[in-house]
Amino acid sequence: MSTTTLNQSRLTRLSARFAPVFATIAAGAAARDADRSLPYQEIRELAASGFGALRVPESHGGAGATLSELFSLLTDLAAADPNLTQALRAHFAFVEDRLVAAEGPERERWLERFAAGELVGNSWTEIGTVALGEVNTKVNPDSQGGFTVTGTKYYSTGSIFADWIDTYAERSDSGKRVIAVVNAHQPGVQLGDDWDGFGQRTTGTGTSTFTAAVVEETNIIDFDTRFRYQTAFYQVVLLVVLAGSAQGGAQDFAAELAARKRTFSHGAAAVASEDPQLLQVIGEVSAAAFVAKSTVIAAAQGLEAAYQSALGLRRGEIDLEADIAANDAAELASAQGQVALTPLVTTALSRAFDALAASATITSKNLDRHWRNARTAGNHNPWVFKARLVGEHAVHGRELPRVWAIGASGGK
């Protein structure tokens, strides 16, 4: 039996395992979005079911999923509710980082935590008009020989649901950039849900404030050791949000057309669900969803190559040049996917309304959430910059940056 067959068999089993959980999540998605009700229970049910440990090896209590399998399942979750996929973005990125980390007791401890259902959130973006590349959040030595974290972060997606917070900071004693993994369950951590975007309303995104929050020295990780394909990984999760929004939207709009009782005198059929023009619109949305998920899987295969490269480098089986090449390829694939899918999905979901009539805009239906979620995800890491960088690669052979920052030019 081939490895591909084995992987497909595992994906089939995992899909069946999580399908009931996804169905429950989908049933409440529209109401949660309308009420801005955070999915605490849904996130915990996913964690309890082992979803957060998908990538953890079976030998350590996880499912041992490949990246293609992970991203396929994440797309199915996003079709149910893309906000949950977005909320778990930082968790799966941190799991990935620990998978490629040097073997030892600290790595083992994290794998045990993941298998036990513990989740990791995100706090990377500095708040306010900080200069490009500046980090105001500090890790400080304390008088007892330990360390604390002080600072404020925004776009802390998923942290409000998490047990740990992956925090980008700077050591005040050495100036070294680090990842401080802070236990979220302590008085020095305050988590807000003050994101007010028109989409991705229930991702648990907002402000994280650290006031002398304790962090163990073993949980202060040198940023330079971070897994090299991290930016591509984060971006492919955003592609998942686009693909899932397209898939969920295609399903909902198709169901609306199938149930439609009224039609127009100048329509092309006596029944709306048989009108060839309206069926064409639904077909186009369905095709966009197919292309979007196919793009996600293709990009995930690039990530898988980078992951295998990282393991090969750690074992001394390949050289640094080969590893960098694999990571550059993963970054390029994620950027190409972003450039292609952002306009494809947002346009398809906007056009989906052409298959229905004015009643499709009724607030209680909340069909617009599919477009709002996709449009909001598409505004992360603006695709227009990526399009230029992909063009530079095509014309001049320049590799895309794998680490970049956001901030004010000159600090203004």
TrEMBL record:
Keyword Oxidoreductase part of the UniProt annotation: yes
Keyword Oxidoreductase in annotation: yes
Keywords (A to Z) from UniProt: Oxidoreductase
Organism superkingdom: Bacteria
MF term (GO), any: 3-methylbutanoyl-CoA dehydrogenase activity
Limits of the Acyl-CoA dehydrogenase C-terminal domain: 243-381
Biological process, per Gene Ontology: L-leucine catabolic process
Domain Acyl-CoA dehydrogenase/oxidase N-terminal as annotated: residue spans: 25-118
Entry protein name: Acyl-CoA dehydrogenase
Organism: Paeniglutamicibacter gangotriensis Lz1y
